[in-house]
Amino acid sequence: AIQMTQSPSSLSASVGDRVTITCRASQGIRNDLGWYQQKPGKAPKLLIYAASSLQSGVPSRFSGSGSGTDFTLTISSLQPEDFATYYCLQGWTFGQGTKVEIK
Amino acid sequence: EVQLVESGGGVVRPGGSLRLSCAASGFTFDDYGMSWVRQAPGKGLEWVSGINWNGGSTGYADSVKGRFTISRDNAKNSLYLQMNSLRAEDTALYHCARDYYDSSGTSHQFDYWGQGTLVTVSS
Q1: Residue pLDDT, tens place only, A47-79
Q2: In 3D, which of A93, A95, A86 has the Cα closest to residue A11?
Q3: CA–CA separation, B56 vs B47, rounded Å?
């Protein structure tokens, strides 16, 4: 089974910062990767699919990149509503999550 | 508007059973595969089980294989999860989610989620 390693597990950032989260697959997965945002008490929300495609309605400050084994979610300018936990998903396997906290 | 509403959670003793339901609306239910995804308290997300559009193909995480059964009733726009031989480690919020594939059909994600139903396994 493909293993997904997500890093960091948490980070502290300020409003306006550029934030990067990574996921590494244990073997090549082409572009079969997505990113989710989850706020406390809420269901996860799909942000990015197929590694770099922005889901409808998601702000353009979110972007995804990568192919093969290494993938990145970037928030270009962190907004107050972006403080949340982010997960990658490959097929049926989620990454461990990254909690983005206010510095 | 797509809506997924789960029900059926509760407190059950180890070894017991529960049946979860997910009522879908706002889309053509039998056009989509569906899944159950759970989240233990304070933990990450774990895919539990999935089913294709007509129920002809199912899949399970190793952690639940042989104990859980997924099914669907397209006439009722409903998804189910029969959970038997429950263990403490099955305690979690269980979400139903709609399967999404990109235009190439090769990249899978979940594009809509319900708010979840809480299952607590405790003596």
Answers
A1: 999 999 999 999 999 999 999 999 999 999 999
A2: A86
A3: 19
Query: How near does any CA of chain A get to the CA of B115, in Å?
Result: 5
pLDDT in tens, B59-72: 999 999 999 999 99
Residue A25 has a pLDDT of 95
Q: Tokens for A52, please give them.
A: 């770099």
Euclidean distance between CA atoms A18 and A45, whole angstroms:
20
Best B108, B111, B115, B117 member to test A by mutation, with max A CBs in 10 Å, is B108
Residue A13 predicted with pLDDT over 90: yes
Exposure of B76 in the CB half-sphere (CA atoms within 13 A): 9
- Residue owning tokens 């293993």: A3
pLDDT in tens, B12-40: 999 999 999 999 999 999 999 999 999 99
Identify whether the C-beta of residue B57 lies closer than 8 Å to the C-beta of residue B50.
no
- Partner residue opposite A43 with nearest CB, options B35, B102, B115: B115
**Chain A residue closest in CA terms to B45:** A94
Is A93 within 8 Å of B47 when comparing Cβ atoms?
A: yes
Residue B114 has its nearest CB partner, among A34, A43, A49, at A43
Distance from CA of B118 to the nearest CA of A (A): 12
Contact call for residues B93 and B38 (beta carbons, < 8 A)? yes
Enumerate residues 6+ apart whose C-beta is below 8 A from B70: B36, B49, B50, B51, B58, B60, B79, B80, B81, B82
